[in-house]
Amino acid sequence: MLECRYASSIYYNQENGYTVAVYETEDEIPEGKKEIGKQQFIAVGCELPRNEGLDISLKGQWKESERYGKQYHVASFEIQMPTTGEGVKAYLSSGLIKGVGPIIAERIVDRFGKNTFYVFEQCPERLLEIPGITQRKLDSILEGYHKSENIRQLSLFLSSAGVTPKKIEKIQEHFGHKAVSIIKKDPFRLCEMEGFGFKTVDPIARKVKHFQADNPLRIKAAILYVLKEAEGEGHLYLEVPEILTRTKSLLFRGDKRGHVTERKIRDAGNSLIKDDKELVCSYTKIYSKKNYESEQKAVIQLAALSRYPIKRYDVEKWISGLESKENIQLAEKQRKGVEMVFQNPVSIITGGPGSGKTTLLRFIVMIQEKLNIDSMILLAAPTGRARQRMYEATGYPALTIHKSIGLTGADGEEAWNAGEMLCDDLIIIDECSMVDMHLFTSLMMKIKTGSRIVFVGDKDQLESVGPGNVFKELIDSRVIPVTVLDQCFRQENPTILENAIKINCGKQNLVYDNSFSFVAAHDDEEAAKKIMKLFDMEWKLQRKNVNAVQVLTPLREDTKVSANALNLKIKDRINPYQIGQQEIKNGNKIFRIQDKVMQTKNEDEISNGDIGIVRKIGKVSGKKYMEVDFGEERVMRYQEGESWNLVHAYAITAHKGQGSEYPVVIIPILSCFRRHTLKRNLYYTAITRAKRKVILVGSKQAFSQAIRAGRSKKRNTLLSYRLKKAFTEVLDKNEAA
């Protein structure tokens, strides 16, 4: 342990808290620069204190660096409570307590001296004796003091377990002033927080609580973690044997001191079901309460919407009239699809690229308006890009699903106002394969009976990022009328569509030409270089329109052809820094004018997946800002120092590209990719985003493997089964009546 004080800062990374700073100490150190009887040294760590005048205890070890010499690598630290008047003054004015600056700090210490902290704790109203402290300011000061003290107590308790200051602050915000007592009682309560999974919390629990390997609280936390991980894989539930296997493996990997028996895991699981009510057992399947309720509510509401006695229309004459007006002849299945929509309260239209889904949507909207000129029509899609394409295709305003139902949280985590129902006569939801179980339930619960609902999508595309496989389950249930469009009408660059159909059927005999090509690369390093050159070349051929060329990759990170890695390379190639050029930094990302960027969270005016261009970087009151043009007169300002949900978008994941189209698409495919990324529907989805040209870069062997691999692993969901059961029960009741 080194007793020291902060001297100066060398480096601080706002994104991850990495700190390099100079401290001075009177303790003995291996090497140091002597200055007024004290020695200076460099410390390296996460979120190290940089407050002047405070007494700090650093715990860590000395390490030799070839470039920088001896450095103290800090594992944990503690800010000491001062005992002298000067120390108290330094503590109060250090910035740890909001509302107290040097002048107020000096006045407080001059009045109360060493008793200052006693006054804060026992008789805080006496602080009103200090000139400049009003009741309002006192409330703010006390809030800051108690928060600072809570964080200090948490640090004493958790820093030895390697919990960083930034995480300690998050813990305090989540649990409030009772944080220490809550975590002392059950450290696994930390698993409630984002970024604190079981694997992170388990070693913390062992250090601060000395939990036994078979402690029921530990086993329960492991079971909940296993189900959360399964949800990340797309599952709504797990079978009991799978939970037992995964939980046993997780518990043993985290603590090899003792064997946890299957009986104890079963007991903990039963307690989570019966006592804690956090899990639900249904047909031997184990759900989280949230997932179970989501699936159940969706089924009940969809059944109610489907059996509502909605008015049926014979629209044959309207179809014929529009065919003449639009100079379009619908195919038989397209015609049947339009008729089906106006004969049923809920219906489904599915088909691949070029199969005529867009034409059908236009016809459906136009007929609805002819049937009732005052019709209320809602067109919605899961992402901003899909919404925009829907609008461009139909000429009718469209919204994201989140916007249409009033989901206000990041990606729909916050609840909507249940009182505001959707009362539209016609509701069309496009790109339904992207809709997960929770979003689908939120949508269903907002639709009023009497609405005509149409679900549209390509059942062969990638499943939703979130849990469930809603669109496929709706089709497989066979209780909702479905039109399958299997005829291709699009003539532009038929090779892309021809190959997409072959890939979807698992066929290997693809056609390669100018619109569909393959560039060989042995590894991700070679592939990254070739992708960068190809992007540059295609960008120039597209008159330097960055929106015309898109890299779609399976991975966001962990490889040199990931979205994050490629964005750095492509940005510096086509938009390099020039002397005098304005830049703005956010975390570890640097943005320049003309950069292509993507929003990654839903906000009021923009949606997750919206792509824009940086148009301006300026400065107001000494702070930089950046303006991004997202189109449709949506210009958003991002302020320096704030957290931005923004990334570069020259390369994005195939999931993020879903629902969009681009003239040119470049796709990496390599044998080094994880097995779950070498799957048929991922590359089918990526390839069908291209309108004019597809360039695959990597290994043909890996591509062949992906086509052979077939579809993704089946997701655990009972939506289809529950729908069949619900509709059967309705029929039985009707027959009995």
What topology does this entry show?
Layout lengths: L1 E11 L5 E8 L7 E3 L2 E9 L9 E10 L3 E11 L5 H8 L9 H11 L3 H7 L12 H24 L6 H11 L3 H7 L12 H11 L7 H17 L4 E3 H15 L7 H13 L4 E4 L2 E4 H19 L8 H11 L5 H10 L4 E6 L5 H15 L5 E5 L2 H11 L4 E2 H5 L20 E4 L7 H10 L5 E6 L12 H8 L4 E4 L8 H11 L11 E5 L3 H18 L7 E5 L9 H12 L8 E4 L2 E4 L3 E4 L11 E10 L2 E7 L5 E5 L6 E3 L2 E3 H4 L4 E8 L10 H8 L2 E9 L1 H10 L9 H18 L1
Parallel strand pairs: 4-6, 10-14, 10-15, 11-12, 11-13, 13-14, 16-27, 17-25, 17-26, 26-27
Antiparallel strand pairs: 1-2, 1-5, 2-4, 3-4, 5-6, 7-9, 8-9, 18-19, 20-21, 20-24, 21-22, 22-23
Which features would summarize this protein structure in a list?
ATP-binding; isomerase; hydrolase activity; DNA-binding; 25 helices; 737 residues; RecD2_SH13; alpha/beta; 5-stranded mixed beta barrel; 27 strands; 6-stranded parallel sheet
